[in-house]
Amino acid sequence: MKLSLKLKFNLVFVAIFGVGLLVSAWLAQALxxxxxxxxxxxxxxxxxxxxxxxxxxxxxxxxPLMQPLMAERFLPQSVPSYAATENLARLxxxxxxxxxxxxxxxPTNPRxxxxxxxADVIQKLxxxxxxxxxxxxxxxxxxxxxxxxxxxxxxxxxxxxxxxTPSAAPAPMLARYGPDNGFGWQLHDVVGAQIVSxxxxxxxxxxxxxxxxxxxxxxxxxxxxxxxPMPLSSRPSRSARPSGTPADATxxxxxxxxxxxxxxxxxxxxxxxxxxxxxAALSAQRVPFT
Length: 290
Fold this sequence. Notes:
Blueprint: H1 5-66, H2 80-91, E1 99-104, H3 116-127, E2 134-140, E3 143-153, H4 160-163, H5 171-177, E4 190-199, H6 201-227, E5 253-257, E6 263-267, H7 275-284
């Protein structure tokens, strides 16, 4: 079976393109997942900064205004960690895939108590004081999760007014939470960690979506290339022969009636009549003088 030139070209093109497509898919998947992972971590950092802003706003502006009321009853809204947690909880209505927690080893509020894996993260932050954040992955019942954590360090001595000893704590706070939790903190000590976690399938879904778009675009280009007809090779045209030759031009002839009924044929390619023939015809018609 003899294959046409176009078919041979298409077969070679498809083979080369198939190998290139596999290599491109492998490289693109790794790059796209890395990019999607960094994008997700950047979103988590933005949420972390949002929580930090809520903490700063509460401690700098709300606490001084609420301080006179604290003598009669304890207001949890005056606690920076409580304000940050409540703000991020409302933000989760727009971004439900992200979770925020201020995990603490010895918290005042029981809801902030660190779980086993969170306690391990806090310990890693304590072991590395120079570290500003810790990024990791863990297994959950719903699948792998990606998280970012930052240390909660006691750098403000005002925090020890409520967390040093039960005797120094406000009475309304003791009445609300009791004297057993949230005490014994030390200045510059790491007591917990701000943790933002997100399911690992979020960056995976982003990477897969981009990969599908990229691969479909390549396939569309390949199909368009296979369907494009190949230009036919042009043969050199025969050189034109000089005009006026019997092979290239057909002579048209006209007949001229001479005196005596003699016809002289004029060629279309010639502008003269055979003079000998004309002279003979005229001599035959000449009348002699008497």
